[in-house]
């Protein structure tokens, strides 16, 4: 018996959210004071939720692993945030944003959730402007827009190349205000290490104080997970060094279903890998594809000469360049969605046309844009990105094309949630990238910021009340309950086990092993044989981890190696589940590309008749295989089509 | 072209806030100049772990110059010798074969050391909590285009808002002043109509909190501006002084 009930409200698509809000249960102001809510994470989703819930009157406890809420990795989002304002008068609407998002996600997201996302998108922009977020403006003083992949309208609001930073600082300032007003209590440098369940409901967490190394207990009436994605399973990704999947994984192990784990987004425009010592990959914003043109040499001998350093890209004549995205996808050109652009780059490099010393790079060229717009305009639009590139690569993108290659960026999969953003564990909610709900098999650019803030400002603060309304007579919890004792003992035992391995491999050493397996077999192109091999190899990685790991120092003190080890133990298991899910899904869709399932032109081949479902995995214990349930995706309002960005 | 270099890294080691610290020097061979400064420290830590020693603790996260988590005083400069970048964006091609590189934590009364190169910057959060916001609740706000804002004002506000809160300004200042940080936030809001309503209260509250937390006074040496990884201008400090004085006169 599975617990899947998506709780989609009745009624026409455009009225579902209003219907829900009109009929949901609310908590009155006096009762809000009696209810405690734990929010784990302070990114766009976490900070906006904590601030909003605090303002409403709930007692909020908000946790982050960094030294300040403002460091959460949402800060690194560059390009922008989508909304259906239609300020440019170019034909945008809530419906069109909804449709583009569903289509961009390759028809693997819920209609009702995505429609609601599009519906609240406009309020987000209003809210951020009211907070003093300095969005880009036209000379007339009104807000400016740019366009992003997978859309034919300009609906992306931006603050130079630092939109994520500005939106997060907006949410952080709202959070700071709530802290000042004692509506939110902040715990920085704390890491959630387990979820505590009492009588079947989420009632608290165990967190490790990262400075003292001590385990501490926190109780609440509801727990909200806003801890982002698990892209660092691949070791090299665009995620921050401490971004991790552990909080989500603890929820999975305590009974929350994990949905679509194989859906990982590979971003087409990252700075290519340059050596074994590399610690992370740097993203170059998708907004660069507004003006940059992507190409590789047309002739194999030119590509080879470039790789050997005998030829420069600027020496390749126009007619000898293959602008392969413009060639293959005339209607969208360089602005095809990320999955399509990434695969096209891989296809060219695999065919021998790749550039750079490794052959694993393509060009992103601004020469035409700079001659058309002038260097000043180019600098105003992309100056900070060009500077970032130059510092890393030591090349000047104003004079020579950038080199880029795809890298793991975002995970569409995550904790399964219903329409109310509640998981299969009552009282446990998941928001932002940590849940699976809105992006299907592929996320469009500038939609992550939209979803994080939609969940945190405008969805969860409503839906959580429908749950909490039944909890008003439940008194504040004490943390001496046996469930807390047991959870703390379990994690303490796990830490002891890790500390006592005393092997000879560092955490990073094993994490790199994991990353290689994931990228080679669970990366951009997957097939059954490779995935089976990955599952075998991941067992070896796990074995290596639990027998050869070395953590210097002690557990009850600041110990960065122990922090990383706890996260890596989970990444290995997440990798296993990703491989299982990818093997199960015998179709190609969005970020999940099975080599066996492609059209004669090399495009993703979906099998809507068999795989139009969300895969929901249930944990069954340490040595048992997880069980998969299917949530059928019934499209009531739109007709599924093969995605077409050609015409 | 990037090549491999041999270097010595002289690192501040300190076990806890109250313990005595000291420098340790570690030789490192065959460091690619294409690696970042923090990747060089990763290599050092890998070596220390393999030798059974405790790795050097330092703050870092996004490694693309935006989260503000990384710090480090490198050869006497916050975020190292390069201009307009954070430590995580610093690359080893800025150093030569045979160099000894000195790495210290931020040193300031406002930022106590936690361990090795990691410091406590919670004071910045407290200053923000004192007034670094526009007092609006979620919902019930006007349409985003209801109030046009002159483009130049929005651009200047954005220049100030680019601050990443790393604390380099405090580390660079001989007085340990946090004026550049505070002025960046006060300026951003003073330049926008949404922020002007609370401008007086904000300037007073943030400055008072800064003073209370043990940060020094500004004596206009301009070191903060030179070392700021985001090139935040000290004209913001002038604006903060105006905002503060106007608020005080209004009392």
Please give a structural write-up:
The complex is a heterodimer of chains A (647) and B (251). Chain A has helices spanning 16-23, 29-32, 44-56, 94-104, 111-131, 163-180, 246-253, 300-307, 324-328, 338-350, 367-373, 375-393, 448-468, 482-499, 507-521, 528-548, 560-584, 608-611, and strands at 36-40, 59-64, 81-82, 156-157, 184-188, 190-198, 201-209, 215-219, 222-225, 258-259, 264-270, 293-297, 321-322, 362-365, 402-411, 414-415, 428-430, 613-618, 627-632. Chain A is an alpha+beta fold. Among the domains of chain A are: 267-407, Succinate dehydrogenase/fumarate reductase flavoprotein, catalytic domain (Flavocytochrome C3, Chain A, domain 1, Alpha-Beta Complex), CATH 3.90.700; 494-632, Fumarate reductase/succinate dehydrogenase flavoprotein-like, C-terminal domain (Methane Monooxygenase Hydroxylase, Chain G, domain 1, Up-down Bundle). In chain A, the strands form 5 sheets. Chain A has a 5-stranded parallel β-sheet, with helices on both faces. Chain A has a 5-stranded antiparallel β-sheet with strand order 11-15-14-12-13. Chain A has a 4-stranded antiparallel β-sheet with strand order 16-10-18-19. The radius of gyration of chain A is 24 Å and the shape is globular. The mean pLDDT of chain A is 95. In chain B, 36% of the residues lie in helices and 14% in strands. Chain B has helices spanning 37-50, 122-131, 151-161, 168-172, 179-190, 193-196, 199-212, 223-227, 235-250, and strands at residues 4-13, 22-32, 73-74, 77-78, 100-104, 113-115, 118-119. In chain B, strand 1 and strand 2 form a beta hairpin. By secondary structure, chain B is of the alpha+beta class. The mean pLDDT of chain B is 96. In chain B, the strands form 2 sheets. Chain B has a 5-stranded mixed β-sheet with strand order 2-1-5-3-4. The longest helix of chain B has 16 residues, at 235-250. Classes of the chains: A alpha+beta (647), B alpha+beta (251). Chains A and B meet through helix 3, helix 5, helix 6, helix 12 and helix 13 of A and helix 1, helix 2 and helix 3 of B.
